[in-house]
Design a protein that fits this description.
By secondary structure, the chain is of the alpha/beta class. It contains 16 helices and 9 strands.
């Protein structure tokens, strides 16, 4: 029995919407027109909107599910992952859903163990010169990631046909950092000291990630994002010599369906031709001037980049800051813009502010 016909989901709007979409799905093209226009760099007045971590701790829908199920269950049970991903699309009218999962699961698949605690995710052991031999092979690791393909497929079945679906993986450098440090915070000194281990680690990790990307695309994702949240801690020259080759390996087969987002990077990090010609588009954080991003990345989409912390402001202040952010874009080409935040929605963000963000964008750019 298909997911659209099963009365199992918690959100009050799911079943009615699912029944409607079941009857019309064969008549409509799958995917959101605004999102697909942005990926193709076609001109349009209103940009598509989706936010990193749009399904998360700030959202009452997520909180209700999390009260019943563990985080691991929400990720690894496809019907629950689909329900979590759909919630913010229903509540905030986003143009796209994103796979609900976690970027650390490839490390678990490689045999490093993974537990989600009140203090954040914890690996059973850390990567070092002495432990790297303990990593599983790609063939042994691969079955442990198949649940993500199931979750993508379940989400696509549940989504209305007029919404797009995005998958994701963590960037090789970001996963290396977590494997070595157990966190993405700080100066990442241990990771940098073990830089010579990075390429050896990637001999296993990068093929596993490439297979994961292909699996998500084959199960209904229109785009897979690479999230590289630790990239900005590297000097641009080291980023180019060490990280870019791994990103090139990932983009070789499916680059036209892969987006790349990095946190804390500057234009000097992204000067390689890979970032103008090798990906479907580029996401930038709130430290970037969006004008410069449009000019630097003339092909594909540009995602970003309102400062996510400003969503914590009171309503009037948020509206004032948002309009000020949008004003320079009124007379600037916005072709390819995927509107979003500089990073993920923060815990404690008022839901009304998320709604205000979406409504203001669409009112300003009708």
């Amino acid at each position: 029995m298909g997911l659209k016909n099963r009365e199992i989901f918690c959100h009050p709007g799911v079943n009615a919407w699912a029944r409607e979409m079941t009857s019309s799905a064969t008549k409509e093209q799958v995917g959101n027109a605004r999102f697909q226009n942005a990926l193709a760099r076609r001109a349009q007045a209103t940009p598509p909107i989706w936010l990193m971590r749009q399904a998360g701790r700030y959202h009452k829908h997520y909180q209700a599910l999390r009260a019943k199920y563990s985080f691991m269950d929400l990720c690894k049970r496809p019907e629950l992952a689909a329900e979590v991903a759909l919630g913010p699309v229903l509540d905030f009218d986003f143009d796209a859903a994103i796979l609900f999962s976690d970027l650390l699961f490839p490390l678990e698949a490689l045999g490093m163990g993974l537990e989600y605690t009140d203090h954040g995710p914890q690996l059973e052991w850390k990567l070092s010169e002495n432990t790297i031999s303990q990593l599983r092979s790609v063939e042994d690791a691969w079955p442990s990631l198949l649940f993500q393909g199931d979750a993508v497929r379940a989400t696509r079945e549940l989504l209305p046909s007029g919404r797009s679906l995005i998958g994701f993986i963590g960037g090789p450098w970001t996963l290396f950092v977590y494997a070595v440090e157990g966190t993405h915070k700080g100066a990442l000194s241990e990771s940098k000291k073990l830089m010579t281990l990075f390429s050896e680690f990637c001999e296993t990790l990068t093929p596993l990630l490439a297979r994961n990307i292909e699996m998500q695309l084959n199960n209904g994702a229109e785009l897979v994002m690479i999230f590289d949240t630790a990239a900005g801690e590297l000097a641009p020259d080291i980023f180019e010599t060490e990280v870019v080759p791994q990103l090139q390996a990932l983009s070789t087969q499916n680059g036209s369906h892969i987006g790349y987002y990095s946190k804390g990077t500057q234009p000097a990090h992204l000067r390689h031709a890979l970032f103008t010609d090798g990906f479907a588009g580029i996401g930038v954080d709130h430290r970037w001037d969006l004008h410069e991003a449009f000019d630097r990345f003339p092909n594909g989409f540009v995602q970003g980049n309102f400062d996510q912390t400003l969503l914590l402001c009171d309503r009037d202040e948020l509206k004032r800051r948002l309009l000020r952010y949008l004003e320079p874009l009124v007379n600037h080409s916005r072709d390819g813009w995927v509107c979003g935040l500089g990073h993920g929605v923060l815990p404690g963000t008022p839901e009304d502010n998320v709604k205000l963000f979406v409504d203001t964008i669409r009112e300003r750019f009708k």
